[in-house]
Amino acid sequence: MTPQELRAFCLSFNAAVEDFPFSPEISVFKVQGKLFALSYLDARPLKANLKCDPDEAVRLRGEYEGLIVPGWHMNKRHWNTVTVDGGLPDQLVRELIEDSYDLVVAGLPRADRLRLDRP
């Protein structure tokens, strides 16, 4: 997955936006003001911080040792740093991004979730 593909996929979700609250180099993808993905898109290898169910996070770290690690500068129980262009199947990366988005949306107030469901 290229940086352009990562950006486009993150922005393909309903109400997703790209923001730069930390620096102009770090893309932060949010839904309703809540972060679901963070990446320095010019970095090599390309990596992204993604929210993850805690049990699933541990399982993924064991299965993809070195490619999925505890979230850098994040709550390591709930976030993984995923090497996007380093040997993981693109389909898995897309699933991890989608899971991150879904976890964040699930934590939003009901009214915000309902607004996201409207066309």
UniProtKB/TrEMBL annotation:
Entries under InterPro entries matching the protein: YjbR (IPR007351), YjbR-like_sf (IPR038056), YjbR/MT2646/Rv2570-like (IPR058532)
GO MF entries: DNA binding
Query: From which domain of life does this come?
Result: Bacteria
| Alphabetically ordered keywords of this record | DNA-binding
Taxonomy, top ranks, is: Bacteria, Bacillati, Actinomycetota, Actinomycetes, Kitasatosporales
Pfam families in alphabetical order: YjbR
Name this protein carries in UniProt = MmcQ/YjbR family DNA-binding protein
